[in-house]
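Figure caption, in words: inputs first, then the predicted bound structure.
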Amino acid sequence: MEAAAAFASKPSPPLHVAIIMDGNGRWAKARGLRRIVGHQQGAEAVRRTVKHCRELGVSYLTIYAFSSENWKRPPTEVDDLMGLMRLYLRRELDELVDAGVRMRFIGDRHRLPDDIIALVNQAEQRTRTSSGLTLTVALNYGGRREIVEAAQHLARDAAAGLLDPGDIDEKTFADRLATNGLPEPDLLIRTSGEQRISNFLLWQLAYTELVFIPAMWPDFTKQHLEDAINEFHRRERRYGASSG
Ligand code: FPP
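Bound structure (farnesyl diphosphate present):
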């Protein structure tokens, strides 16, 4: 009876969780290891987190894997990150397909190495009818760039007479973003104690609950995810309205 009551009162999980996976470098440095080892452990944390989101009933997970600013890192580190992405997509795709995960990529894929573009296209193609967790990977992604591209798209449509500028509203704008069709994130988690958005999902995070946790990304566990979800449930979400 008590168990049934506890079950009935359990709040539903956030529909969409977004994560800024930060701290791979510091995790490695603290252990006297090379940065690539931190990124490798970060990729393992991605693998675990996909599993944990599925177990906890999260429907959408969006991760910031490579920002448009990450090209400024030393070429060897950029190569290492691309190598890891290559490995992840080759090694995990069958398992993701079997698990019913739908993969989607946002960001400018054209600047990526050709074989990674092919892997990204293949991952989207092979999982396009999957109906489980939607895993969106932000790769060479920048939020301002995404907004500028949506504005360009709308301006072109207006110039071509396809659209009256007066008819542009939040919905028509959001439809031109790379995240078109995805719900906005309910919860954003950033690891490593940094408290910034860093050009991630600038439009989409307007009403998202932000949870910053001190753990470095390679150390991220199911318990951290559950704690962040519990924190999300504790906060009252009012969308600008007054409390009842
Ligand atoms: C931040 O750590 C993390 C990144 C720049 C990239 C995240 C990449 C991964 C988790 C691995 C690959 C991803 C997939 C999907 C296979 P940082 O290097 O900025 O850490 P620091 O701030 O401590 O230096």
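Strands lie at 16-20, 60-67, 102-106, 134-141, 187-190, 209-212.
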